[in-house]
């Protein structure tokens, strides 16, 4: 409810216009204006804000960014440990020094842009830090503590995607041979596309020798020196096939062992830590094999490349890698599917020629003088 009425000041008797309205929590807000048109404009702005959901209690916008950041963290019980740790680190190291004591209502787009422009680090890091601040402000908008997100419209540095490395079968074989008794690990990562944390979390019971499948249900990652177990990304377990040439190695790996044992144990029977694996044997195998600098995660990209080369569809690659959607797979590996366009046009051309050839008939003159004949085939 809103109203605008003429009033007279007590001292001078001057005419003023009193505008008042009630917010969603039934609190009254009012102001005096010299002109009626100004009072009406003020009411119109707040009435429109209420109808479109942008109305904000000014007192709530006095909350600091630090308090809102904690509220944002508390609201996300759905995060995994690694995601939470990463976001907490961004808040601690980048958000708090600049914005911690600033009131939400005082965060301006201009100030955020200046902060982004002055931030050191790679474009990807800058975008990640700004993204956390933007998410905090989005939470404030949802909670009606901000009318709009001041991060919207901020120009971010362009992130140039580095060209991915894809190993050939020959290079994978060379790396596997250089890895010695860990060769099965190299081959498994390079042909299944498992994330390292998913591989490390595999148990003996995860292997289905008959179907050549791995049941991927959990992931284990080292965070601040502690191995933390979590659900896989997208929170959906999946069944991943492995190639037949690993049959013997996989059978040896599960032979005579309990189902709850780690399939590829590290020290003390615990899950392998990626850092330890790289230091103990992986980096040395990379150097020995003659393959340029390589990380275990790049074997996941190699698996995608080898699958696409073998004719796998986008949906098949998505399911194998555990992406949330086929769109994500296409966005991540768009370069791998470029050849599909050439194949599509080649098949279209062949199908057209075959269709026209099948529809062609020899020329025949009928008794009525009508002619049926071969449809001209465009050779161009």
From TrEMBL:
Q: Which Pfam families does the UniProt record give?
A: Phage_int_SAM_3 (PF14659), Phage_integrase (PF00589)
Question: Keyword set for this entry?
Answer: DNA integration, DNA recombination, DNA-binding
Q: Which PROSITE patterns match?
A: CB, TYR_RECOMBINASE
> SUPFAM superfamilies given for it?
DNA breaking-rejoining enzymes (SSF56349)
Core-binding (CB) domain boundaries: 63-141
The UniProt record lists the Tyr recombinase domain at 162-346
Q: Which GO terms describe its biological process?
A: DNA integration; DNA recombination
Write out the ranges of the annotated region (Disordered). 357-380
UniProt-listed CDD domains: INT_ICEBs1_C_like (cd01189)
An annotated Gene Ontology molecular function: DNA binding
Give the highest taxon in the source lineage.
Answer: Bacteria
What family is reported? Belongs to the 'phage' integrase family.
Protein name per Swiss-Prot or TrEMBL: Tyrosine recombinase XerC
Q: Which organism is it from?
A: Acidipropionibacterium jensenii
